[in-house]
Amino acid sequence: MNAPAFAIGSIPMTVATGRCKLVNIRQRTLLVAKLRTLWVLGVFVLVAIGAFTRIGYLGATGATTHRGELGASLVPDRGEIVDRNGVALARDFRVYSLWFNPEAMTEGAPLIHSPEEIADGLLRIFPDLDRREVLEQLASGKPGYLRRSILPEEANRVHALGEPALEYPRETTRFYPQGSLAAHVLGYVDSDGKGHIGMEQVFNKQLTGMDGRTHPSVLSIDFRVQSALEDELSKAMTLSQAKGAGGVVLDVDTGEVLALASLPSFDPNHVQPEDMMVSDAEARQGEVPRGFNRVTNQVYELGSTFKPITVAAALDAGTITDLGRRWPATPLHVGRFTIHDDHSYGSTLNAPQALIHSSNIVMSEIADELGGVRLKKTMESLGMNERPSVELPARGFPIWPTGKWPRLRTMTVSYGHGIAVTPMHLASAYAALVNGGIWRPATLEKLDPSEVPAGRRVFTAATSARIRQLLRMIVKFGTGRKAAAPGFRIGGKTGSAEKPGVGGYRRHALITTFAAAFPMDRPRYVVVAMMDEPQGTPATSYQRTAAWNAAPAIGRLVPRIGPLLGIMPDETRDIDISDLKPLIPQEVSEE
C-alpha cells in the first residue's frame, strides 16, 4: 500500500508557518505606522517649539518680522507724517499721470491726429498747460510726461480724445491733505521721491525704511494750533501790509513745537521754481522766496524783546537787588554814540518802569553794570551763539560778535541790537525765562514724558518767578496792552528794530516782534509773532511798531488756541503782582 503524498503530521506544520509569516507582516506594518505617526508628531512638536520660541523672542525684544516682497508691495513707498493727534499731514497717494508714448503705434506715424489737434484737446482739459511746450514735445517724438497727477475724470476725457500715444499710467505721488498748512515744517518731495527743506528731508531715510513705511512719523505739531497761528499771522500781515510774517508756539516745559509758520507760504503739492528762489534783483532788495523759513533760517535784530533777558541776567548776578532803584532816563552818551528813547518818560525810571515803557537808556545802564562778560555768558547759555536747536535743515547761524564785548556792544545787545538771531532762538529763551529757568532744545518730534530732556539751568527759580510778574505787568500796563485777552493772563514784551541795509539801518523798514507766554500764573506755552516791514495803516492807527501789529495778533491767537490746549479763560485767577504795583503808581492809575 502506497504511502500518502503528505504525512499526517505535515499539514498542521505548514499552516502554522504561514500564520507566523502573516503575524510578522502585520506587526511590521503596525510598527511602521507607529513610527510614521511618531515622526509626524515629532515634526509638529518641533514646529510648535520653534513657533513659541519665536513668539517669545518677539514679545521680549519688540523686534518685527521681516517682510518679503509681497508684504513690501502692500505698504506705501513712503511713510505717513501725522500731527501729535494723528491727523495726516503727508501721505502717499495713487494718481494718474499723462504720458506721451510715441511708440504706442507699432506701425505708421506715432500720432493719429495732428499735434495741433492734440494740443487743443489737452488745453480744453488742462487750461493751464503751455500749448507751445506741448507742441514741441509732440513734435520731438521723445517720450515724456505731459502732466503729472491728473484726476480719474481727467484721464477719461484724455481717453475720449482717441489718441493711443496719450497714456495715463497709475503712479504714486506725495499728497499733503492740508494744502499749504505747515509747509515749512513738512517740506516737500521731488519727482524722484527725495524729501527737501523740511521734515520730509530730515525723515527721508526713516520714511522710506520698512518700519517708517508701516508706522507713521509723529510730529509735535498740533494741526488745530498750526491752523490758528497761520490764520492770525495772515490777518496781521493784511492789516499792516507787511511783506512777511513768522510765528511759533512752544511748550515751555518740553520744548515741543506746537505750531511754526512762515508767511507767505507755498503749496507742497504743487511746488513752483519761484517758491524756492528769487532773482538777483529781488535778493538785493531783501526779498526771500516763499520756501524760505523766517522762523528758523532768517536772523534778525529782535529789538526790545531782549530787555527781559537783560533784567533776568542782572537779577541773577545780583547787580539788581532792589527793583525800586532808579536810573537816569536822559539821553546817554557813549563816545560818539548817543542812546535815546522814542519818548521822554521822566528823569529817572526803575527796572519795572523801564520794561513797561521799553527804555533803551535804562536798559543800557543796567547792562553796563552787569558787564559784557556776564551778559554774553547768559546769551550763550540760551543758545544765542549757535544755530537754533530744532531738527529742520534750514537753520540760520546768528550774527554773533566773538571775543570780549566792548562797553557799547554790551549796551546795544541789552536792548536787542548788535546781535541777530532767529525767532526760534527767542522762543526757547522765553521758555527758560518763565518755566523756572531751564533752557531746553526745541523739537518738532512728539515726546513721551520720559523723553523730555533735562535741559540746563540758566536762571534761578526766583529770577524766573520775578520775570513772570514783570512780563505780566508789561501787558497790563505797558507796550503789550493790545495783547491782553481776558482770562488768559498773557505776559510778554514788544520789540521793534530797524532792518539793516546797504550803508546802515533802514529807518523806514522795521522788524516787529511780540514774545509772550500764557497763563502767567502757571506758564504752559510761549508764543512769538514777528512782522517783516509792517506799514502804518488805518487798521493799525498808522503805527508800525510791534504794539500795533504783532501784539494784537497774539491777543487774537491765544483765545483761539487756549481751549484747544486745555487752558480755559478764568478771570478770577492771575499772577500776584501786588508787591510791584507800588513801584509803578502812574502806570496803575492810567490803567
| Helix-residue proportion | 25-40%
Strand content: 15-25%
Number of strands: 19
**SSE-based structural type:** alpha+beta
Q: Looking at the structure, what is the overall shape?
A: globular
Rounded to an integer, what's the Rg over CA atoms?
Answer: 37 Å
Ends apart, CA distance between termini:
155 Å
User: How many DSSP helices?
Assistant: 21
**How many strands, what sense, and barrel or not for the largest sheet?**
6 strands, mixed
Low-confidence stretches: 3-16, 63-68
Mean pLDDT reading: 89
How are the elements arranged and paired?
Blueprint: H1 10-61, H2 69-73, E1 81-82, E2 88-100, H3 115-125, H4 131-140, E3 144-150, H5 152-160, E4 166-167, E5 170-175, H6 183-186, E6 188-189, E7 195-196, H7 199-202, H8 204-208, H9 210-214, E8 217-218, H10 223-240, E9 244-251, E10 257-263, H11 273-276, H12 280-284, H13 307-317, E11 326-328, E12 332-334, E13 337-339, E14 348-350, H14 351-357, H15 360-370, H16 372-381, H17 407-414, H18 423-434, E15 438-439, E16 456-457, H19 461-477, E17 491-501, E18 504-518, E19 525-532, H20 550-561, H21 585-589
Parallel strand pairs: 1-8
Antiparallel strand pairs: 1-2, 2-3, 2-4, 2-5, 6-7, 9-10, 9-19, 11-14, 12-13, 15-16, 17-18, 18-19
Account of the protein in words:
This protein has about 600 residues and is an alpha+beta fold. The protein is built from 21 helices and 19 strands. The protein has helices at about 10-60, 70-75, 115-125, 130-140, 150-160, 185, 200, 205-210, 210-215, 225-240, 275, 280-285, 305-315, 350-355, 360-370, 370-380, 405-415, 425-435, 460-475, 550-560, 585-590, and strands spanning about 80, 90-100, 145-150, 165, 170-175, 190, 195, 215-220, 245-250, 255-265, 325-330, 330-335, 335-340, 350, 440, 455, 490-500, 505-520, 525-530. Strands 1, 2, 3, 4, 5 and 8 form a six-stranded mixed beta sheet that branches. A five-stranded antiparallel beta sheet has the order 10-9-19-18-17, with helices on both faces. The longest helix has about 50 residues, at about 10-60. It starts with 9 loop residues before the first helix and ends with a helix. This is Peptidoglycan glycosyltransferase.
